[in-house]
Task: inverse folding
């Protein structure tokens, strides 16, 4: 489902080139639960941005579901992000003035979906993450764990093929972090492909594949079943 | 769907920063209020002017005596006389009303009350030319004029000056300069216009006035009432021709009289009002544009502040066009709301100003619609740059923004 060939990404900082990725060959199959680990600044977020279609590589090819996406237009990438990918962030990134429900609905609006149908899907997703009694609450009225669960419902609402989570437990205490992990594991057990970035070993150990990155290169790739 | 999302998020963002939104649109509010007030004041002033001109009924030229000049040397005043008026009356090619008049100040007494008053000698034509109408009693006739009757028609406010009621004065005698005159009519209230207050004055037949009060046939004026559609230049030329002949003025010599076209002044006044209104509206328009720059500035700040939000929206599938649209809508709504508030304030100002000046309240709907549309367009135009900036943001970079 995901396959990259010699992905490179560099940033031009003044006259210098800063390499964030120095040649990544990676392939991830449908239904996998992958953890990406590595020290800070090693290129994890950059990698996720590229395979999440938020960014394009400087060099190399990236195939998503058999389609070469590394040179699609902005509008086409937006459509893929909307339809194929769900993002979960460390800092939740909910719209502060919107209710949980309206946050979950946002991707359906960008998909141009029919209001009634998407409303019922959004409610279903909030129920799935255990927040059906919090649909009208704004983020400030929710705990961190609840906010991250709203974000998960939002990531799921357009039924994407992959979920990307960049340090989803990084802002949570270990218990609520584990709750979020359990939710992600449940989703994976139902066939959802999930890729998370983490630097907590006990989180990574709950996935079935750990990829370690250092200085923009894959250092280790362990499939632990 | 997307359209509604844009409206909702635009309104949300305006509400969330209510004070800032208000301050930002203040220039728009003031600009629109000024445009509306000035256009309304101009319209109301012109309407008041129209009403004033309508009162004249017909178009009104006035002839006054001037200086007699020979070879650039003034050789005394050359009066207008009743003979000049009769000569004008004999002209048949024009459908005009010749209304000679004279005015003197005299003491008037009724019972034990006195007043100092203007006594006008009027020909019967003066009343229709001035647009004066009778309230009680009647006007005098040409026959009574020729008979030099001691009849008087009085203005509507004379009675209260003499500490009585109009009804009470009708058919009573008043003493004008010591001589007894019978009050045969009382005029409707005319209201004062400019330096004249016709309601306080007395009107007697012109021949009574020349023979019994002034003791001269020299007139104060000759008014000439002409139909609204008359060719004023032609009329003026005819008057000149008659009076030059009457006054024996040779070719190349200057007129010894002046002809005033009052409606010309009205036109000039109207023009001045319009130019003034246009000028202020222009200045107000500039303040709207300045307001637009303020809105652009705040929108740029807002785009920077909301970089992360924009990154998130893009991550969730918003295309650059959707983001562009969202910020354009926000700028447009911000300015349109400012425009609507401005229209309310401007209308209020106009209302106060018009009632203060006793003008009719007139506000063209097109001005209201136009100024709200204009401020919305200002928002749209000045929103383009910030909105494009938001649309162009790189999602990956924006999501890293703290
Ligand atoms: N927009 C950018 N401009 C310049 N350098 C960047 C930019 N984004 C990331 N980098 C650099 O790329 C490297 C990888 O960053 P990142 O992918 O965020 O690492 P990680 O997520 O593993 O901490 C870092 O050295 C970072 O400083
Ligand atoms: Mg990172």
Result:
């Amino acid at each position: 489902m995901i396959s990259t060939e010699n992905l490179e990404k560099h940033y031009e900082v003044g006259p210098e080139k800063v390499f964030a990725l120095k040649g990544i060959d990676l392939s991830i199959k449908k239904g996998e639960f992958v953890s990406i680990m590595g020290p800070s600044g090693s290129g994890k977020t950059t990698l996720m941005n590229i395979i999440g279609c938020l960014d394009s590589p400087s060099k190399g090819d990236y195939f998503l579901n058999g389609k070469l996406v590394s040179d699609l237009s902005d509008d086409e990438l937006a459509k893929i992000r909307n339809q194929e990918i769900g993002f979960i962030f460390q800092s939740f990134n909910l719209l502060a003035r919107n209710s949980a429900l309206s946050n979950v609905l946002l991707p359906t609006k960008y998909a141009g979906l029919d209001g009634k149908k998407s409303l019922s899907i959004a409610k279903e997703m909030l129920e799935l993450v255990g927040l059906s009694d919090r649909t009208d609450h704004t983020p400030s009225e929710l705990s961190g764990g609840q906010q991250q669960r709203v974000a998960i419902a939002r990531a799921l609402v357009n039924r994407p093929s992959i979920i990307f989570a960049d340090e989803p437990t990084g802002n949570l205490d270990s218990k609520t972090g584990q709750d979020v992990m359990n939710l992600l594991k449940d989703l994976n057990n139902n066939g959802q492909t999930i890729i998370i970035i983490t630097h907590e070993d006990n989180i990574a150990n709950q996935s079935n594949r750990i990829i370690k990155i250092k200085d923009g290169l894959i250092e280790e790739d362990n499939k632990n079943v | 769907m997307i359209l509604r999302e844009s409206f909702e998020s635009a309104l949300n963002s305006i509400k969330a920063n209510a004070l800032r939104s208000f301050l930002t649109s203040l220039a728009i509010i003031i600009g629109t209020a000024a445009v509306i007030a000035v256009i309304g004041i101009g319209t109301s002033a012109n309407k008041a002017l129209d009403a004033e001109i309508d009162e004249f009924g017909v178009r009104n030229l006035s002839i006054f005596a001037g200086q007699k000049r020979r070879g650039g040397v003034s050789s005394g005043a050359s009066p207008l006389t009743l003979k000049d008026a009769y000569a004008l009356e004999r002209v048949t090619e024009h459908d005009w009303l010749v209304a000679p008049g004279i005015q003197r100040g005299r003491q008037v007494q009724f019972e034990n009350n006195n007043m100092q008053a203007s006594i006008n000698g009027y020909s019967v034509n003066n009343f229709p030319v001035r647009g004066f109408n009778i309230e009680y009693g009647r006007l005098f006739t040409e026959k009574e004029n020729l008979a030099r009757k001691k009849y008087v028609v009085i203005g509507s406010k004379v009675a209260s000056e003499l500490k009585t009621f109009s009804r009470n004065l009708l058919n009573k005698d008043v003493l004008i300069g010591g001589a007894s005159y019978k009050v045969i009519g009382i005029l409707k209230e005319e209201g004062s216009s400019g330096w004249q207050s016709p309601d306080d004055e007395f009107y007697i037949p012109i021949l009574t006035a020349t023979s019994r009060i002034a003791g001269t046939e020299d007139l104060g004026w000759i008014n000439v009432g002409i139909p609204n559609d008359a060719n004023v230049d032609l009329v003026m030329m005819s008057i000149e021709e008659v009076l030059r002949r009457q006054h024996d003025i040779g070719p190349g010599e200057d007129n010894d009289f002046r002809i005033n076209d009052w409606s010309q002044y009205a036109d000039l006044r109207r023009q001045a009002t319009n130019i003034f209104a246009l000028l202020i509206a222009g200045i107000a328009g500039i303040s709207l544009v300045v307001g637009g720059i303020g809105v652009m500035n705040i929108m740029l700040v807002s785009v920077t502040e909301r970089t992360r939000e924009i990154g998130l929206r893009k991550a969730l599938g918003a295309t650059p066009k959707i983001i562009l649209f969202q910020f354009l809508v926000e700028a447009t709504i911000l300015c349109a709301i400012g425009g609507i508030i401005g229209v309310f304030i401007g209308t209020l100002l106009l209302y106060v100003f018009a009632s203060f000046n006793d003008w009719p309240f007139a506000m063209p709907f097109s001005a209201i619609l136009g100024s709200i549309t204009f401020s919305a367009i200002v928002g749209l135009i000045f929103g383009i740059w910030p909105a494009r900036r938001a649309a162009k943001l790189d999602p990956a970079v924006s999501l890293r923004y703290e």
